[in-house]
Amino acid sequence: MKKAMTMALTATLATSAITAPLAFAQDKKEPTSNEVQEEVATNFIQLTGKLGKIEKHDNGTLYTTIEQGDETFSLYIEESTLVLDNQGKEVELKEGAKFTAFVDKNKPMLAIYPPRYTPEVLVVETADFGIVEVGTFDKDFVNKENTLKLNLSDETVVTNVAGDKLSHDAIVGKEAIVLYGPATFSIPAQTNPYRVIVFDGVQDEVEEITPIEEVVDFQQFEGEITDVVTRENGSQLLVIEDKEQPFALTVGKETIVLDNTGKKIELQKGMKFTAYVDVMKPAILIYPPQYAPEVIIVQTEGAGVAEFGTFDLNLLNHENTLKLTIDDKTEITGLTGDKLAKDDLINAQALVFYTVATASIPAQTTPTKVIVFGEATFPEAELAVENSKQVDGVTMVPLRALAEELGYKVTSTGKGAILTKGNASYEITRRQKQYTHNRAIKAFDVAPTLLEENTTYVPQTFIESLRGE
């Protein structure tokens, strides 16, 4: 059957989220009820583990990698991150310490492997008695599950995730992290907490991330070969007798014919296939239509997947379903068979062959073979933009639009953005003059700011400096 189709990979999200309370010394009595308990939504991902080696970056942030069996992730701990022990006291991080990290699940994160999280709060386990629990509390300071009631006193420290002190009323209706000690065995349990951290969501306005509109230059056809006709010039004509939309394929010496594992194969009657045809190539005006594909992939019983897509600077496809890890064994070629480098598939449409992928979102795989359908494109940016603005005598221009035209991947952090291209990396925070370039601290003349809704503006001189990367 003739089909123009977009291939997608479905995966299951595997998340290291722990939804139960973290108790370092005792368990709290839970209510007994025959009613089904309502599942309470939370804004936090809770990650637990032991801290690995702690590295300090030039900008003051701490970086550590946690390995738990087959699962690996990293924590990026900023100066603004609340680092507390299980009694709510500020504490320094040490290698090997057990922890629970609370990460805003609505915060955009870099699409890298292993995943890197920037927690709002990090609680370190100590020998002191203490329990950590997340909940949303009503006007009587009882959580939605009716398992915990807070008895607040003048000694109870109530803050937001930035560490600013708040009134007790600020807890009402908000999700909060509660650190407490002894509790009654009543229903709900009652306690005088050491500290309450109120979560208000991302404090700054989050820049809207516009999905990339995929422009496909190659149409995909699939079907089953009804007959193979060999012509006098050595080319083959594949007949596909679909009842609704019959068509034929012309196969010449330049046509790439592979099975789903990436191996060469001879075409035979009865084979099921997917063909990739350049939409700009002229077609013969006959019926049934006849196409000359660049690549034909034959489906066999061999273990292997062939997937078509366009991959960004991080080798992540535009659908966010597949991320590539290229090693020395990965064969990368063009349509003519010439060998290419990893950078040649960036922003170019490519056909990827692989056998094993992770069950994460996006799935991650090391492909055996990649065929690049064209050249990588990095268009030049036109800096003479009509909506430039003046701030303190400095020309300010939209960050995302111009950086992406220069080939940078722009990832919103909620408070600013991270720009990546090849080995270059920039991290920018709105209303702060300082920014990092490959971990080195530099400064703007005027701090980046939101001059339009969901649009961060930076000095034009910064965009001009990106051309040199």
UniProtKB/TrEMBL annotation:
InterPro entries: Cu_amine_oxidase-like_N, Mao_N_sf. Transmembrane segments: none annotated. Keywords: Signal. The keyword Methyltransferase does not apply. Residues 1-25 form the signal peptide. It comes from the Bacteria. Gene3D superfamilies: Copper amine oxidase-like, N-terminal domain. Residues 391-464 form the Copper amine oxidase-like N-terminal domain. It holds the Pfam family Cu_amine_oxidN1. This is Copper amine oxidase N-terminal domain-containing protein. It comes from Lysinibacillus louembei.
